[in-house]
Fold:
Amino acid sequence: MKTTVIIGAGVTGLSTAYHLARLGAGKVIVLEKDTVGAGSSSRAAGITTGLLWTETGVRVRQVATAEFRRLGRELPGYTYHDEHGCLNLFSPALWPARAALLPLYARLGAPHQVLTAAEIGSRWPGLNPPDDFIGLHDPVGGYSEPDEYLPALAAAVRAMGVEIREHTVVHELLRRGDRITGVRTAAETVAADAAVAANYAWVLPLLATAGITLPAKTFIHQRFVSAPLPAPAALPPVNADPYLGYLRPAAGGRLLLGIETPATPDRRVTTADFRLTELPEPWDLVGPAVDRFADFCPALRGLKWESARVGLLSFSLDGEPILGPVPGVEGLFVGICFHSGGFSYNPASGRFLAEYVAKGAPSLDLSAFRPDRFTAADTAAYLATLLTQSQSFRRRH
Ligand SMILES: Cc1cc2nc3c(=O)[nH]c(=O)nc-3n(C[C@H](O)[C@H](O)[C@H](O)COP(=O)(O)OP(=O)(O)OC[C@H]3O[C@@H](n4cnc5c(N)ncnc54)[C@H](O)[C@@H]3O)c2cc1C
Structure:
């Protein structure tokens, strides 16, 4: 029987395990250095839209949103909130680049509706965009609460016979010649026919143990959740690039507000020992963030803020995910660099990683995401440069 080890129990690793189990692909072991969701997955705002920037991205998200809907019906304790869809907001300066993608959405059958500021305000009275702003509404987008989704998915995965070993650091990928043979943890060697690196911000030090490098960079990112509002907000999740952030309703009648920090340089993770809890809590950012958003969403004014979560976003050289077989090492696969959209991708990224492992190829053309699309020189140059978030890509959810 074939054995697959998955490194990392975030949404990508768990989803890969889920789909491998559904495919009946043999023994599946997930190795997690801390606990389920200890990486960026538990920090995510969980906002999802299908309206991305490339044909591959849009097609993959069509699979992802359909899967979120199915999982919302099938996973006990998990709800996919698509009651209001997802609103992508643009200023006049930002709109032309997005308007150019409307023919792509039409061709691929990705549902969408362009809304004026007045239409946004009348549909959701809690939102008050400037008169010249434009909305691109995605009726199949929505959001998930990571605190519901992660335990629900982990329980489903375990019920399907997958072993999730927490507090187990993978120190080394083991290969014989050009084949993966397993991984080494502190306690043992785990033999495997295939290994999936789903360890996101920590991937470079792990791949280095097999002599592999990929152009991946990580940036700090944060979001906040308020105290309950006097009355729950009837709002869609909003990707609000003009305000450098996003907001959504949150469990218990709260609001969630997330913001990027454009001037912050990339944060390098050089060891598996690094934990996101080492990042400082970003409470100094919440006041300025509220000031930026308050005219747009007046309910934010005067709110108390109960929690802050900070994590890392991972970006590739061309801004697109890196997903598929690692060149030169048979049996090794990666699913990384999901920018700020790895939560949204996960039901599809896990499915396609599982198809690579179990069937040798995914059911969708994912050549745009393949790890072998980068040259060694470009990878080295990217890794040698310190970039700020604003010098990388803005890829919101
Ligand atoms: C504040 C914030 C808000 C976000 N909002 C959204 C959003 O609204 N929508 C969206 O789609 N995305 C969002 N994201 C991005 C999203 O969180 C990530 O893209 C996604 O969670 C990546 O999932 P993952 O499973 O690939 O990685 P992770 O969740 O980081 O999981 C990797 C796991 O690997 C483990 N690991 C690492 N190294 C090893 C090792 N050597 N051995 C064993 N285990 C190891 C880690 O402990 C970790 O649990 C947000 C991110 C942040 C920080």
Remarks:
- The longest strand covers residues 305-316.
- The chain is about 25% helix and 25% strand.
